[in-house]
Amino acid sequence: MQSNDHFFPPNIHGEDLTVIQGVHFTPREIDAISCFIKVRGTSKISSLLSISPNTVIAHSRNIMLKLGCNSREGIIDFIEQSQTLPLIRMRYGNLVTYAAFEKCLKDISKVKKKTKQAYLILYGEKPPDKPILSEHLGNHLKQAGININIEEAENKTIDKLKSGKTVVLLLGEGDREKIPKELHVFDFIDASDHQAYYFLVFEILKKLLHPINLTPYLQNFHHQYMDMTKASVNERLPLHRIKTKKRAFYKKIQSLQIKKWAFISAVFCAVLACYMFHIFKGNQKMSIAQGQEEKEEGSIRSDLPIPISSVLLERSEEITQIDEKLKDPKGIQTIALVGPGGLGKTILSRQYAHHQKAKVIWELNAETPETLKSSFEDLATALAQTEKDQKFLIGLLEIRDARTREKKLIRCVKQHLKLHAHWLLIFDNVESFQDIQNYFPQDVATWGQGRILLTTRNSNIQNNKYVKDILHLKELNPTQKLALFTKIITQGNSKPLVNTQENETKQFLEKIPSYPLDISMAAYYIKTTNISYDLFLQEVSKNNKLFTNIQEKILKEAGDYIKTRYGIITLSLQHLIDSHKEFSNLLLFMCLLDSQHIPRSLLGSYQRDIQLVDAFIFDLKKYSLVTNDSLPSLPPSLPLNITFSMHRSTQEIGLAYLTKVLKLEKNSPILQGIAKNFEAYVTDFIEKEDLSKLRLLISHCETFLSHKHLLTKGTRDSISSALGGVYLSLGNYEKTKELLEKELLVVRNALSRARALSYLGSAYGDLGDYGKAQHVLEQSLFMYQKHFPENYTGMARTLAYLGNVHRDLGNYEKARDLLEQSVALYEKHPSLNHIGNA
């Protein structure tokens, strides 16, 4: 069995990393540094080290204070300049492997059957690390769900051992020949057969859990272990840094490993050197050096990563607009970049920042209160340039009372920012202004002169008195879509797209939402998987979970963006639904309609609580799920703000998400209630003959009917009949005839049939086919009188239609009689439409 340094990876080379270039670090700080070297984000580090994101940020801040730097980039520079980089990288590899090992144990614990007391007997020469080995084995076997007792052979009697499952672990080479006969009845494992502790544990589990098949779990871990081992090939340490065992068996194993890896390392390093030289030459024009000015010496800047120029979307027009709005050097200038997730707000704000020469440029992550607080503390750390300031800050951060600490921290940042005129702060991913208000510079007298950029999905922020300007980011135009897609697809490939490829790409991109995130995702996915355009579109339409997971993995590899727009939208929808139980029904109603020009009054007719509808629309705008319709896009007869719109892809994602979450089926009461309300809403405007509203409702009725997989036959019948009435009211008699003739062949709902016959009869009359008109109108009137005598609206309307037909046929007496009956109904029931009476 090998030494602790190889057997227990999380503790590897701890003594070599306690002090680096004269700076002392704790083991956890070394773990954090190893993750920074691999450019892992806070959430990933938190998961890997099983600590909170706040603790990760605290470690980062403490390390930066020790090193006198103000970013993780500074930490990486420090390590790269030391002789410990190989050790740090190996540390990270061991952390990843150990995390995978513990996950495997947890998975095994879920499938194991209930077991009796188990015994592990340690037999053989007592190595100096035996207590550590016993402790590790006990902890890890318990993680796998084993009720284990670990003892030395001489401390157990054979009779007691027979009461449970027992395995004997041989600790030394040659111990197999020395086993007493009374132990031969038990399974035994020779530790010297296993070069890694992990596989020794798995071998013990196989024996203890037999006949459970553990192969799938072990194979998965083995692949990860080998991948991490191969990735660390060129990080092998010099021989004098490795502790070796005194026994000849382990010296031989080690000797063989060194010879093998020395050859592989030599080849690998040669290839790596060539590759890195190529990458260095190809990527010299990174974002910071893209024709931009050098940073001022001694500037205080947070990390502002943006894609390299070869895959970066140029947005010079938007940068010019931002510059124009922030150009006034006096006071505190503020602009908010507003738009849905995936429009590239964060990247745009960083692009702008890279063009600036201010002494202080800092990005504050406002996604959660915790990330905002941590970002602000990092800013304070960076501003503390002198030893006196640093000691003061350390004392400030140790204040236990959160409110007192926050107030003093803000005061500290104010004092330092005021010394650096024309600072630039970016508040990224703001959900509501209230979340950032305490940290938001408002008074130039206390904060000094500067500029502020906010990025947010919340379009309601335009009403805030402290935000002076708003820039609503637009979707990409076809030229920008093609440029971004082509940049990514052809990166590393000197051959441009030929004409036929470009034409195919343009047609493909017409079917992709015009968001930078969607275009980038499509390009990276197709480039990675070699999937065709058609197959990619098919996968997108399915909203398959596996497909979404693959997209997120590809995005993670491509950069620091880990959410697809599907993920962003569904998370927003989840927050929306969680805020009020009635919002899910309103949202579903919207997703069944046309995405454009949705009447606010339609939601009001479904949900009578007007304040609830107001709150719903407010939250929709908070997540940039809807936009107010602009005046030019509305019918001239409709006032501004009477309708709003959703992006079609947002609506499609919303419907797919709600169908799953609400477990919708054709007979769902929610769908039935929505359809009934929608039909009544449409019918009301037909009776009122409100032509401007009816024009707006055509597309909504047609879209509603397109969701055949969610609608029952009765629902389709009722909405189809209502749509026929809309066509009729707008004078489209041919379309009325075409729709209702087809529907009447299958309509079985009596009321829908009566209404459809009435509309169809009127259309026949307007088309001059009076015979058919009379026939179907008499059928409709009969059905109303027999089955729906209290449906005065339908009966009065049908009597009027039939009276007009008889008038056109020259049957004036009959016409007068029918029309008088219609008028009598209108007069008897004043609530009926006065226009119909006229």
Essential attributes:
alpha/beta, six-stranded parallel beta sheet, four-stranded parallel beta sheet, 58% helix
Task: Write a structural description.
With 838 residues, the protein is of the alpha/beta class. It is 58% helix and 8% strand. The protein has 38 helices and 15 strands. Helix 8 links the parallel strand 3 and strand 4 (148-152). Helix 20 (478-489) runs parallel beside helix 22 (516-529) and helix 26 crosses helix 29 (648-661).
Termini separation: 101 Å
**Using DSSP, what is the number of strands?**
15
Number of helices: 38
Mean pLDDT: 80
What portion of the residues fall into strands of 2 or more residues?
5-15%
Structural class: alpha/beta
Q: What would the principal axes of the Cα set say about the shape?
A: globular
Low-confidence stretches: 1-7, 233-296, 834-838
Q: Helicity range of the residues? A: 55-70%
Q: Quick one: biggest sheet?
A: 6 strands, parallel
- As a whole number of angstroms, the C-alpha radius of gyration is 36 Å
Strand arrangement, major sheet: 7-9-10-11-8-12
